[in-house]
Amino acid sequence: MPNEQRVGLETNTATQNTASSEVPAAPPLLLLLVLFWLSILGHEAAHFGVGALVYSSDELRTGIVRSWPQLLVVCAGPVSTMLHMTMSVLGARSSQNATWKLAWSSLVASAASRIAIVGYGTLRGTAINDEQTIGRILGISPRAIWCLEALVAVACIVYVARMWSPGARPQILQWIAVSVVVGWAVTLVAGPLLGLPI
Length: 198
Ligand SMILES: [Zn+2]
Known about the structure:
Helix content is 81%, strand content 0%. By secondary structure, the protein is mainly alpha-helical.
């Protein structure tokens, strides 16, 4: 066999071996879905947690709130999403186990998907969301806030994607995409039914 063909075969085999040792044996879709919902609930819990700390009992009772506590409460959601996304990048980077690395990667994608899903309304100026409220209170463009979040999200996604070998990447991407799409589909139906401000 010519040397070039042998080298090609050896490279392919090496890529397949790396991919098979990197990818968990079975798709842990239930784990990925649970992590997705924890990610969504974490964002809402940050709003509720900071609200419980900074709003007075009168503000909680009447719903008429001062600007600075409202700013803290609204900022808590996006800040928690950004923290969760960047911490998950560090988790994926330090993880040696394939399932944990996948779990951390899926958390990065879950946080990034929240930013993506509010993008259309924020850029068109029709959404009533965190970016719009923060922009109104601070007098800055909600679109600029969203673009900054999207920039960080894209950087995190690219960084995490490059942690996986080219052979493993399509499988990992497929599992995470399924969990994010199913996760959002269930959340957008069940959230309003349960009274959650998703
Ligand atoms: Zn929020």
